[in-house]
From TrEMBL:
It is an enzyme of class 5 (isomerase). GO terms for biological process: DNA replication, synthesis of primer. Pfam families: DnaB (PF00772), DnaB_C (PF03796). It comes from Spiroplasma turonicum. Keywords: ATP-binding, DNA replication, DNA-binding, Helicase, Hydrolase, Isomerase, Nucleotide-binding, Primosome. This is Replicative DNA helicase. It catalyses: ATP + H2O = ADP + phosphate + H(+). Belongs to the helicase family. DnaB subfamily.
């Protein structure tokens, strides 16, 4: 019975493939769509892939798709006999009735193609396991190849400008009606949001600073602020365990010093009240933390895709770039490897249509200069980061250098901090001044006088 069902399914697929080819041969408009949405490898029957390829060649050469031209094309490449001759081509042509609803046939062909590719990968896994290939290598190779399988049919992204201008004007009208509306994910800092209009979908954002400038604290503040606006946040911490991260979030939210939370000494009833109240708020936030050490870029991509599906994630924050590894060993230097990872992160941001904020280290040469304000050439490991990023911002606290050897006893001590936007592909650059409450790891807007 199962064999019978499978045979019937194959007959339906073969007929669908013939219908797609027949429509491509009869309808110029549908032909363009079919050629852009399918590839010859998507066809189950070898002869059909050859016919598809011949039609595609004729279309590329701007020739009419006629039976005569198709025969000539296949004959010139010695493929006519291989496809079954004129008789089989005539049989394919007989499947044309109308081009209406051709998209359903295209989707059927494409979905079956995905199934066959997945089956091939399962066979590859079996073969790798039989050769005693290390399980880690099997997993990484399989993950990469499965992620490369496109599950959505390709749609032509070229659009007439008249369609896009309508969308642009509608967005401007919406912004005018809602003067305070941020159409991206809010950062929670008023001047920064004015400059960026919120973190935009598809943007790859670099946040860089020297150690102890507060990179992780600022990133946690961005996560906390986004969650307060009911945005879903994925936070990948490759350096710090999730318990420490959540403790720092609790400190920033409750304004109870991190040292008090670490030692649990001197907690008054009032402080406990703030801790519990903040804990209840944090419990209801959509922040997903992954603290897996040694993540490679493919694992990160896979996890983020699953998080977006399961937890409705709007923004991703990664701490930090130089701790991400690639699965390839072919790179001649770490600089080239970081460049490849940077390009992949930008690609992931575009594919998942969300902003990705990635923390990055700066080289030590900042410390050797008299003027220690960071610049883009200070980005560690790769100049390619500078090219890939849509926004590059630096944190700089002058007080860190002025008072590096001073131990503060005053829990209310705050440092003025510069958020320096050095690159902004779609907007202005400049410096925003905010305050950093070091004991709480909390950043906040400066009060305007």
């Amino acid at each position: 019975m199962i064999e019978s069902n499978k045979k019937g399914s194959n007959i339906a697929l073969i007929d669908a493939e013939k219908t797609v080819l027949a429509i491509a041969m009869h309808s110029p408009k549908a032909c363009f769509e079919i050629m852009s949405q399918l590839q010859k490898e998507d066809f189950f029957i070898h002869e059909h892939s050859l016919v598809f390829n011949a039609i595609n060649d004729l279309s590329t050469d701007s020739k009419n798709i006629t039976l005569t031209n198709l025969i000539d094309k296949l004959e010139s490449s010695n493929k006519l006999k291989e496809v079954g001759g004129i008789e089989y081509l005539s049989n394919i042509l007989s499947f044309f009735v109308t081009d209406e609803g051709f998209e359903d046939y295209v989707e059927l062909v494409f979905k079956n193609s995905i199934g066959r590719r997945l089956d091939r990968e399962l066979e590859n896994i079996k073969k790798l396991r039989e050769t005693n290939t290390p399980i880690e290598e099997v997993f990484l190779l399989t993950q990469q190849r499965i992620l490369d399988i496109k599950t959505d049919i390709h749609k032509d992204e070229a659009t007439e400008i008249k369609e896009t201008i309508i969308q642009v004007i509608k967005k401007i009208e919406q912004l005018e009606k809602n003067g305070d509306l941020i159409n991206g994910v809010p950062s929670g800092f008023s001047e920064l949001d004015q400059m960026t209009n919120g973190w935009q979908n598809g943007d790859f954002i670099i946040l860089a600073a020297r150690p102890s400038m507060g990179k992780t604290a600022f990133a946690l503040n961005l996560a906390l602020n986004a969650a307060l606006y009911n945005k879903g946040v994925a936070f990948f911490s490759l350096e710090m365990p999730k318990e420490q991260l959540v403790q720092r979030i609790l400190s920033a939210k409750s304004k109870v010093s991190s040292s008090t939370l670490k030692t649990a000494q001197g907690i008054t009833p009032e402080l406990w009240k703030r801790i519990f109240a903040s804990g209840e708020e944090i419990k209801n936030m959509n922040i997903i933390i992954d603290d897996s050490p040694g993540l490679n870029v493919l694992q990160l991509q896979s996890k983020l895709r699953k998080m977006k599906r399961d937890f409705n994630i709007d923004i991703c924050i990664i701490d930090y770039l130089q701790l991400i590894s690639s699965i390839s060993t072919r790179f001649e230097s770490r600089q080239n490897e970081v460049a490849a990872i940077s390009r992949q992160l930008k690609k992931i941001a575009r594919e998942l249509d969300m902003p990705i904020i990635c923390l990055s280290q700066l080289s030590r040469r900042v410390e050797t200069r008299e003027q220690k304000v960071p610049i883009m050439s200070d980005l560690r490991d790769s100049g390619a980061i500078e090219q890939d990023a849509d926004i590059i911002m630096f944190l700089y606290r002058e007080a860190y250098y002025d008072n590096k050897d001073i131990v503060y006893d005053n829990s209310s001590q705050t440092d003025e901090t510069d958020v320096i936007i050095s690159k902004h592909r779609n907007g202005p650059t400049g410096t925003i001044k905010i305050n950093f409450m070091r004991d709480y790891g909390k950043f906040q807007d400066q009060i305007k006088k």
